[in-house]
Amino acid sequence: MDTSNECTSFFGSAQSSASSALQGLCFCERPTVVKTANTEKNFGRRFVSCENWKINQDCGFFEWLDPKMCSFGRKVVHRLHQRHEYLEAQAKRCETLVEVEVGKVRAENEKKIAQLKAEMESEISQYRK
Asked: Which residue from 102, 84, 82, 106 is spatially nearest to 94, judged by alpha carbons?
């Protein structure tokens, strides 16, 4: 199961029926973490698991925080997530274009400054003669 949006602790999250989850500890006495599923079947659904889940050394502690979503709701959330990713990619492209244009303007300004500096130095040297 792919996950994203990891939180550092279960504390402050939705209520859970397991007493160990309420204490923020899993079966191996490690802190639990809240994660969000990215699978098609459970996209956007939050769950609590052992903090070692990602490194495949977990104790098997797992509990859903959110109820199952209807198929239409899953589709809507999935489409919203896709739209968000698309807009993020567009924003990055725009940032890159802005950086390129800013770089061009800076280069032009530096060239003009160098030319003005050379002209001023030439005038100063003529004045001193």
From this structure: 102
Residue 63's CB: how many other CB atoms inside 10 A? 15
Give me the pLDDT at residue 11, please: 34
Q: Which of 58, 54, 1 is nearest to 25 (CA)?
A: 58
d(CA 32, CA 36): 13
Q: Rounded CA gap, 112 and 105, in Å? A: 10
Q: What is the mean pLDDT of each run of 10 residues along the chain (129 residues)?
A: 39 40 70 85 86 74 87 86 94 96 95 93 84
- Beta strand residue intervals within the chain, DSSP E: 3-4, 32-37, 46-50, 62-64
pLDDT at 129: 67
